[in-house]
Amino acid sequence: METNSTKNTAALIHLSTLTQYLIPFGNYIFPIIIWSATKDKSTFIDQQGKRAINFQLSLFLYSLVLCLIAFPVLFVTVFKNVSMSSIFHGEDWILEDFSLANVTGIVAVAIIAAGFFFLLKVVEFFLVIYASVQSSNGEDFKYPLTIPFLK
């Protein structure tokens, strides 16, 4: 049986990942600080802290892969239509003959990857809220699609 203090601490660890919207890398810093300071008090806190950190690290890895797919493709697609002389001579960048007909299938893959990234962030937000509610009720919560970096 978990005490209210341990349940609240576990919920706070999950909720502290939302600091990423205010502080860069807050979704890693604050859960690690709270978890490392309180992990010896309860196995429930230790378990939920590891799961929250593993989930954030997994999302970072998934986001990195999606960005590595989307950004280079979109970058090349836009800049292949820019005249190199305008770049080197300091002129205004004018997209030459840019139309939707120039958009290839690989650009569609990049747009889909960017869409998955957006969807990943929305799902992350709701899963963090759900995990904190479950933890505050003393229930064991496992994030889906999480790579167990910390065991």
From TrEMBL:
InterPro entries: MamF_MmsF. It is a multi-pass membrane protein. The chain crosses the membrane at residues 20-38, 59-79, 99-120. Keywords: Membrane, Transmembrane, Transmembrane helix. It is found in: Membrane. Its main location: membrane. This is DUF4870 domain-containing protein. It comes from Flavobacterium caeni. The lineage of its organism: Bacteria, Pseudomonadati, Bacteroidota, Flavobacteriia, Flavobacteriales.
